[in-house]
Structure formats: C-alpha cells, structure tokens
Design brief:
This protein has 173 residues and is an all-alpha fold. 57% of the residues lie in helices and 2% in strands. The chain has helices at 2-7, 14-36, 64-71, 78-93, 106-124, 146-155, 157-172, and strands spanning 54-55, 58-59. A two-stranded antiparallel sheet has the order 1-2. Strand 1 and strand 2 form a beta hairpin. The longest helix has 23 residues, at 14-36. The model has no long low-confidence stretch (mean pLDDT 81).
C-alpha cells in the first residue's frame, strides 16, 4: 500500500501516505521479528516484570521508536538512522501537509523501502520478500505548469520550510 500510494499519480498526499503506511509496516515487521525470537514486544506495567499494560483489552505493544531501540540495541546502523528520520518526520506531518517534499526526500523513501525488504530477507528469508510483486513506476516530468506549482508552493510554504529544515538537520547530523 505504501508503494502504491507513493507511485499513484492521483494521490493528493503521496509522501504523507507513504510515510504513515511505512511506519505501520515497519512496526508490524519488527513485532514479527520479536515474536519469532520469543520476545513479547509489549509494555510491562511499571514496577512489574510479568504484568503487561493493557489498552482496549489488548496488550499495549511497542511503538516503532521502541522497536527500533530494541532491534538495534548496542549497534550503530544507517538503517536505524533512516528509521529514526522517518519516525521524526511522521511526528512532524501528523497534522500538516507535505506538499512539494516528495522529490526532496525521495532517496530516504527509497532507502526505507530497500531496508524493509532487507530485514524481511534477513529475518524471514526470500519467500516473504515483496520486491518481485512491485511494478516500477513510470514518471512524468511536466505534470503541472509553472504557475500551478508556484501557487501550491506558496500555499504550503510555512509547513514545507519546517519539514525541509528537519530534513536538512537530519542529513547534516
């Protein structure tokens, strides 16, 4: 779904949808890794080593930031840095739009997808990989004329500047 959203020429919130869907997908993937390893990716109640926190009748599972911290514990990895970038970006876009940011973070989005596929391969083997089922998207270079693009950039300028600053800060770190 994330790739289909990103590659959909009619999607209004292409990058937003991709980021949100990939955060959910990564969370589910890392939960599966932990379950396979015999680890319950769930929060324990404070002052307890055996009683889990419960939300709506279900054990409260770790969010992606906790999964990443546990999965990469004691190591430094560019995959971890990419995931932390997207966790922060997801937090920034939760209540705003990312218009015009698609081209800016294309490389990070592609890396997030490649890393996802690599973890599937590493943890579960080739039979679960999704790469062969994805089509390569065709691209058009002139979807809008200049005045349409300029008007949309002015409309989203403030939110975009905050996000571009976030991207620049992450890249420079």
């Amino acid at each position: 779904n994330a790739v289909a959203t990103y590659n959909n020429p009619h999607a209004s919130f292409r990058c937003d949808g991709y980021v949100m869907t990939m955060v959910v997908a990564w969370t589910a993937l890392l939960h599966a890794v932990f379950y396979q390893r015999g680890v319950q990716p769930c929060y324990l109640k404070r002052d307890s080593s055996k009683i889990y926190e419960v939300v709506d009748g279900e054990r409260k599972k770790w969010e992606l930031a906790t999964c990443v911290a546990e999965y990469f514990s004691g190591t430094t990895s560019p995959v971890e840095a990419n995931l932390k970038f997207f966790i922060g970006l997801r937090n920034k876009i939760e209540h705003s739009s990312l218009y015009g940011i698609d081209e800016t973070i294309f490389g990070e989005c592609q890396a997030l997808l490649y890393n996802f596929e690599d973890i599937i391969h590493t943890e579960f083997g080739d039979q679960w990989q999704i790469g062969e089922s994805l089509a390569i998207s065709l691209q058009m270079s002139r979807v809008r004329d200049g005045s349409q693009g300029a008007a949309l950039k002015r409309l989203h300028q403030h939110a975009a500047r905050s996000i571009v600053n976030y991207v620049d800060d992450m890249r420079s770190s």
